[in-house]
UniProtKB/TrEMBL annotation:
<protein>
    <submittedName>
        <fullName>Glycosyltransferase family 1 protein</fullName>
    </submittedName>
</protein>
<dbReference type="Pfam" id="PF13439">
    <property type="entry name" value="Glyco_transf_4"/>
</dbReference>
<keyword id="KW-0808">Transferase</keyword>
<dbReference type="Pfam" id="PF13692">
    <property type="entry name" value="Glyco_trans_1_4"/>
</dbReference>
<dbReference type="InterPro" id="IPR050194">
    <property type="entry name" value="Glycosyltransferase_grp1"/>
</dbReference>
<dbReference type="InterPro" id="IPR028098">
    <property type="entry name" value="Glyco_trans_4-like_N"/>
</dbReference>
<feature type="domain" description="Glycosyltransferase subfamily 4-like N-terminal">
    <location>
        <begin position="20"/>
        <end position="185"/>
    </location>
</feature>
<dbReference type="GO" id="GO:0016757">
    <property type="term" value="F:glycosyltransferase activity"/>
</dbReference>
Amino acid sequence: MEMDELRVALFSGNYNYVRDGANQALNRLVDYLLRQGARVRVYSPKVEEPAFECAGELIGLPNLPIPGRGEYRLPLALSAEVKQDLAKFVPNIVHVASPDIAGHRAVTWAKEREVPILASVHTRFETYPRYYGMAFLEPVAVALLRRFYQRCDALVAPSESMAAVLREQGMNDDISIWSRGVDREIFDPSRRDLAWRRELGIADDEVAVGFLGRLVMEKGLDVFSETIAELRKRDVKHKVLVVGEGPAHEFFSQNVPDAVFAGFQRGADLGRAVACMDMLLNPSVTETFGNVTLEAMACGIPVVAARATGSTSLVADGETGRLVEPGRIGDFADVVEAYCRNDALRKEHGAAGELRSRDYSWDAINSAVAEAYIRLVTANEEAVSA
């Protein structure tokens, strides 16, 4: 089977209405598939003012705002119009990118028509309850996710560490890797701009401890802020540079009162902001890959990350950064302090991370998903023929 014979129906809970690493990866995938001659239809909630112009043709799904997180939409079902569009398109592979209601309906639609299903895993949804005081719900979330993913023919995960977790949880037996790439035109050490740092009030000799991402509790904002508080107690000279926006901005600004908030950045401005950090502190355990980790590495800065899925596949502990057991504030403070006090070590690990980041080419990475599509479609056609 050739690439131009693929007809892919992609279902996502967020394709372009809020910018994040997951939907940007999906857009890059669709762009790659279209350039190879494949046909793609994307089904996802639509809004009047999306965060960015999407790749491919987007068909809207019925949806409602998620309670407490109104910037996100919950796809509710497959409307009659969507089903008509699917019937006309006649996909030979269905790709589901989120385990929501519409994702379940898409899986049912595909199974009824003997269309193979690939699911991509983008975040560790089962870990979210612990950030909102409901950790007791985590086993329930795992069981619900297992029910969804076992109905799919195969999964793709962004890192081997995440694939190992999925296998351990019994999510599926067929799991391959769809990694992530980095745009080297945007993320590069040459983007560092001391004048911009000075405008933000960061002196040339100050070590900027960076946070990069949406300001939401599941990104480990509590661990980050407690680590910074510990550095203050130890009288470690540093400056916090926060790049990103989100609903937990008030919490973060109150708990890291001396931080510089650069707000949401994109394109070349984002590359400059990351390159102006001296290290990235990423304590999140919800990542399946860690786009921000790879972007920081490409900019030549070391990463201090939680020893969790995603980060363990990117950060070589003691070579390109440091890995710390999740939630251990003292240990996080120890390694951040070491970087603050040792310029040579910081630069050595940053340079090693930049070298490692060169292995991540988007087209090569996205070809792995196309190969998974072709494998599933071919196997399905052979099974139907038999």
